[in-house]
Amino acid sequence: MLRQPGCPLLLAAAGACLALALLSAPALADNGVGCINDDGMYRDFIVAWKLPDGAEYVYFDPYMQAPQKSQYTLDSSTEGFLANTLNQVYSADKGKVGYVQYNDEWPDDHKHGTGGHAKGFFGFDENQGFWLQHSVPRFPEFVSKGYPGLPEEEFTYGQHFLCITMGLNDMNSLANQILTAYAWVYEQNIPEDFPAIQNLRLLASGERDDNGGSNTFSFTSIPFWNTYFDTFYKAPSWGKYLYEDFVEVQYQDDFTWETWMNGINPDPSFCAGDSDGHLYNSTNIRVLKIGDTKFKETQDHSKWGISTGPRNQRLVCLGDINRQESQNKRGGGTTCLANSALWQYLSSAIQDQDCCCDRGSCNAYGWCVN
Description:
Pfam family, one: DNase_II
Distance between the termini: 31 Å
Low-confidence stretches: 1-26
Strand content: 25-35%
Protein name: Deoxyribonuclease II
Order of helices and strands: EEEEEEEHEEEEHEHEEHEEEEEEHE
Largest sheet: 9 strands, mixed
Keywords: Hydrolase, Signal
Structural class: alpha+beta
Oligomer: single chain
GO molecular function: deoxyribonuclease II activity
InterPro entries: DNase_II
Number of strands: 21
């Protein structure tokens, strides 16, 4: 059964009941700013994965039966979904569009080792826009310099992209969460005559919201026709696991995760009932095959996961945070949706992963012994 959204759940691990903000589904225009697919068509959302060692990518939108490999490459400045979407801002009169670019590693190689570990781009007109969440450092280029496509220095590792078309009210609500995450904004423009979007303006100004409390986290559910996007964000001061202490507890389900594992102190897989008191299985993916390309997690910089427990919720999450101990002190988030076609594709793409077992051939950590 797919999860039915819209109900507040008890976040028992954090000792708090989260308020669920249900926003009205906007009536958005096809001629406004939004996510545009490879064929130049406006879409509610688009998900894509860049394959390692190049600029080829696989992408999915809700009108497709399954993800497919694109005929374009991400290094193009004029073709493909990224160029189509971003050039609405890069090529526009700056008095008619607004944008906020944030990344913990800026295109000018300025790096931030504290605060938010979050990468994204808001682009919008006076009525609607898109939010592009992604995993690529130093990307995209400053709007003021024009859009050159994905630079060659970012070809090495796999990456992910999530684009959602939304109204300004939802975008403003989302900006409030990203304020909590302590995101690093590197370029922005919001025309003075645009509507009252105070959180976006605060984010654009470099404002951040981290009160130092132990429960600085935020959950919002954004409805869009038949799809809900659940956004989970934490501040650096929260100091807990985004996935194990927030996402998995909210959904009450097991997950397997693909995140950057080349850093210092990557987290092992956690099994429900272990000595650390984890409530759900949280395992690492080790090998993937997307399209015809097979690769290890060490070749991948994307950050996503799927539900794997008996509840059959078919959840897919994409976001900012790696499963590394140091990331508990960084701000960031993840966005989850229930989509059977996307979930099935990713589930089938997993070639090898850690596993947990309840009995039989288990080691001291509850992992399966091959």
